[in-house]
């Protein structure tokens, strides 16, 4: 496409990306792995070994939290998909022109705002002295204040809220590209609503579903704010443990091992998701 | 039994969008096994009409019957019609076999039976053994045939076709016209075909309805629509025609004398034009109805005029010349390729002549 | 399912009701945050004690408004500083990447593209700790070798900027490459044909075409930088950006001053986001 005369230009373009990826992505992760297999044997003295990983498997708190984080993230992803799909379908297929743009923007605006602000909003709503508790008392449905914060349901509400846009946007994009005439053809050939959803709409939306699920799962797994603020001190989220090891305990070796395990888990789930749906990372994530 | 129920009949069908009437009191019947085309310019309401038949629009008033059964309130998936969409709407996420088998699956037909019928129908449209291929592995013409097979496997009472040839290139379009007609004959199913391309309609149809502004202007066999257009719109829309504005100077039974604005006198035979002396009229003349010669011919012959060739448009069998007479009025004249005019050049002097009964006369609009 | 296919009215109304409930769910937290910014009470909760502007302009304890709260003002400045650097770096790298991926074919391109996408699937916390671990070990090595201090490699502004830049660049690349993909290269060829130099053609024809995407990705970068928490948390030093400051305050027990900051953030983000969208629309 471009002549040989631009060899220099090519290398100039190649330099920033190599620098960026090498210095900020690849080398740090190698470094993380190296630290995770280091064991402190004396002051400023280290040996290589898998002791940190052994600690993880021997200490039930660690691996239980790990499993809990994974399961809740999967649940949050599934919930987000179920809640978000009808909305995306509504925006993409049942509205046009101005209404469509407005609804889409209304979906976007909350997510331009810091996650902290959003979570803060849920705290105001859910806490004992919060809006919902007061509303329930006012309506006479409960006698005294109800504490709705600091439980798993609150974490779930927050996780779904935080990530639903990342489900809705890719879904709207893929559903938008589904030609109405395909749905009409489905009806014309005798299909029922359910059959068309199953055989035409969902297969077409698959890339959007996969990329939405990957992003939502990632965001939930790596979330720190929502579990800490909505789930309270004992929320038992894996990122919280990593933070504790790094900042409070100053045990970077164990922290690195925990971080590396989290990375492995998220990579494995992404890989599985792509394999199961026969998508590639480039085509799934490459759509901005 | 001679009183067949028509496969499709529309009775006084009307469709309004907000303040706009897309289909305006349309009634017609399509007999079993015939190829019926609805021909009209874009925006004439033909797509709306077709979509009402398929069930994607509901008529504001009127009735729509298929094999005598009213379809009002029947959802599209319960109608015995199938549609070939403009861009075919083959499901890209399924292979060819699954596309064609879609309708059968919805009916709950057993799997081996589906496979058998899909193979069978694909063979009948001339595509045996493509069931495992992906949609994007087929050529444009093959996709057309798959789209038709996908409908025909359901044995619909009526097959609707929404300008399916529009996206093809010229050569393939010419080929598909013949093929579609052959497929229709082979399946002996009623086809309702909409198009804005008059040549598609003329070549394939048993009957053509010419549609304009939501109304049917004329319904009839292709020859009738071409040679005996009932309205000025039909005369202008179907086939090529020279259009001459003139005023009726004298009416003598079926024979009319007209005068153009430039003063040229025209003679025309029109038994039922209903035109009165002094009325303004439009004269339509097919390019092939005009004769060309290098000599003036017999004196006293009607409608002979001398002119100058201003352009020679060579297009094989469809070649024509533009001839301008002394008053500056231009006529497009078909140029026979049988010799004699091979050395016709721009600037040549020629004589044009046409028989009075070749002209079609309509009262001028407005 | 689609407007042209008739559906029972009841199903349609249920669907609409669900959509309405969904949007209420979306709007609720932000609405309460905004409303309680005006509550004349030291707690951002009911009961409603009356309307006040104190949480914006108040000067007297305990009603110290945003505009007189030094810690918050300073952290807004820090955030803006970080965001400006991140946006600049990310847009520059993103533009280079876009040209590289759209215009060039080379060995290993597919692999490089996958690597470019990786930051999207690495949890932010992990990005943060990996950069923290890596820079600290470099700093340790350098300090051991030279005896000098390398504060830039310890948690602080530089690491925060690098940490955010490490994943925001991917977004910038995707946005700009998508637009460059739509560019008709024959326009550039026409410019060359008319006597422009290669660089001149890119500068005068291609870059103006890319401008909407560049602006949009810069705005997105600023928004993402402002709201980033996970990566920043691991890399922050003594100068905390806004989200970290707010988080600390929130943990200590919140006052409506946080609502006031949040309200300002919501308005600013919405305006910025809408502006970038409008800019993109108008140029498309």
UniProtKB/TrEMBL annotation, chain A:
<feature type="domain" description="ABC transmembrane type-1">
    <location>
        <begin position="66"/>
        <end position="273"/>
    </location>
</feature>
<feature type="transmembrane region" description="Helical">
    <location>
        <begin position="70"/>
        <end position="91"/>
    </location>
</feature>
<feature type="transmembrane region" description="Helical">
    <location>
        <begin position="153"/>
        <end position="172"/>
    </location>
</feature>
<dbReference type="Pfam" id="PF00528">
    <property type="entry name" value="BPD_transp_1"/>
</dbReference>
<feature type="transmembrane region" description="Helical">
    <location>
        <begin position="12"/>
        <end position="37"/>
    </location>
</feature>
<feature type="transmembrane region" description="Helical">
    <location>
        <begin position="208"/>
        <end position="230"/>
    </location>
</feature>
<keyword id="KW-0813">Transport</keyword>
<feature type="transmembrane region" description="Helical">
    <location>
        <begin position="103"/>
        <end position="125"/>
    </location>
</feature>
<dbReference type="GO" id="GO:0005886">
    <property type="term" value="C:plasma membrane"/>
</dbReference>
<feature type="transmembrane region" description="Helical">
    <location>
        <begin position="250"/>
        <end position="274"/>
    </location>
</feature>
<keyword id="KW-0472">Membrane</keyword>
<keyword id="KW-1003">Cell membrane</keyword>
<dbReference type="GO" id="GO:0055085">
    <property type="term" value="P:transmembrane transport"/>
</dbReference>
<keyword id="KW-0812">Transmembrane</keyword>
<comment type="similarity">
    <text>Belongs to the binding-protein-dependent transport system permease family. CysTW subfamily.</text>
</comment>
Automatic annotation (TrEMBL), chain B:
<dbReference type="InterPro" id="IPR008995">
    <property type="entry name" value="Mo/tungstate-bd_C_term_dom"/>
</dbReference>
<dbReference type="InterPro" id="IPR003593">
    <property type="entry name" value="AAA+_ATPase"/>
</dbReference>
<dbReference type="GO" id="GO:0043190">
    <property type="term" value="C:ATP-binding cassette (ABC) transporter complex"/>
</dbReference>
<dbReference type="GO" id="GO:0016887">
    <property type="term" value="F:ATP hydrolysis activity"/>
</dbReference>
<dbReference type="InterPro" id="IPR013611">
    <property type="entry name" value="Transp-assoc_OB_typ2"/>
</dbReference>
<dbReference type="GO" id="GO:0022857">
    <property type="term" value="F:transmembrane transporter activity"/>
</dbReference>
<keyword id="KW-0547">Nucleotide-binding</keyword>
<keyword id="KW-0813">Transport</keyword>
<feature type="domain" description="ABC transporter">
    <location>
        <begin position="8"/>
        <end position="238"/>
    </location>
</feature>
<dbReference type="Pfam" id="PF00005">
    <property type="entry name" value="ABC_tran"/>
</dbReference>
<dbReference type="InterPro" id="IPR003439">
    <property type="entry name" value="ABC_transporter-like_ATP-bd"/>
</dbReference>
<dbReference type="GO" id="GO:0005524">
    <property type="term" value="F:ATP binding"/>
</dbReference>
<dbReference type="GO" id="GO:0015697">
    <property type="term" value="P:quaternary ammonium group transport"/>
</dbReference>
<dbReference type="InterPro" id="IPR027417">
    <property type="entry name" value="P-loop_NTPase"/>
</dbReference>
<dbReference type="Pfam" id="PF08402">
    <property type="entry name" value="TOBE_2"/>
</dbReference>
From TrEMBL, chain C:
<comment type="similarity">
    <text>Belongs to the binding-protein-dependent transport system permease family. CysTW subfamily.</text>
</comment>
<keyword id="KW-1003">Cell membrane</keyword>
<dbReference type="InterPro" id="IPR000515">
    <property type="entry name" value="MetI-like"/>
</dbReference>
<dbReference type="GO" id="GO:0005886">
    <property type="term" value="C:plasma membrane"/>
</dbReference>
<feature type="transmembrane region" description="Helical">
    <location>
        <begin position="156"/>
        <end position="178"/>
    </location>
</feature>
<dbReference type="InterPro" id="IPR035906">
    <property type="entry name" value="MetI-like_sf"/>
</dbReference>
<dbReference type="GO" id="GO:0055085">
    <property type="term" value="P:transmembrane transport"/>
</dbReference>
<feature type="transmembrane region" description="Helical">
    <location>
        <begin position="112"/>
        <end position="136"/>
    </location>
</feature>
<feature type="transmembrane region" description="Helical">
    <location>
        <begin position="17"/>
        <end position="38"/>
    </location>
</feature>
<keyword id="KW-0813">Transport</keyword>
<dbReference type="InterPro" id="IPR051789">
    <property type="entry name" value="Bact_Polyamine_Transport"/>
</dbReference>
<protein>
    <submittedName>
        <fullName>ABC transporter permease subunit</fullName>
    </submittedName>
</protein>
<keyword id="KW-1133">Transmembrane helix</keyword>
<feature type="domain" description="ABC transmembrane type-1">
    <location>
        <begin position="76"/>
        <end position="276"/>
    </location>
</feature>
<feature type="transmembrane region" description="Helical">
    <location>
        <begin position="80"/>
        <end position="100"/>
    </location>
</feature>
